[in-house]
Amino acid sequence: MKRQLNIRISEPASRKLAALTAKYGSQTIVAELAIDRLYQKEIKMDAKIVVTESGIKVLDANGHAVDFDAAVNVMDEDIREALHARLAPCEPQVFMAAYEAAHLAKYGEDFNVG
Fold it and tell me: What are phi and psi of 52, to 5 degrees?
């Protein structure tokens, strides 16, 4: 069963919603995908950070353990610095999840460490 929600969003968010609606077909689908993706990221942020001899491992959006330093080295500098200014100090997993969301918003694709 679907529920009707009346929400207000910013103008930049409205433009992004329009673009995504054109791609996916409806605002409902876009909203449900976004909510599901954010929920999954929140669950993953609760995961424990693994520290190995080679460094800190964090989970990416797909649940894969990646080297945090390697990820930082390939991040968009503008996004990384803006997040650092806003979030520091924070846990590496929190920073990774925030970066992935910002990267997706800017480039329209998932961040891939490679």
Answer: -115, 175
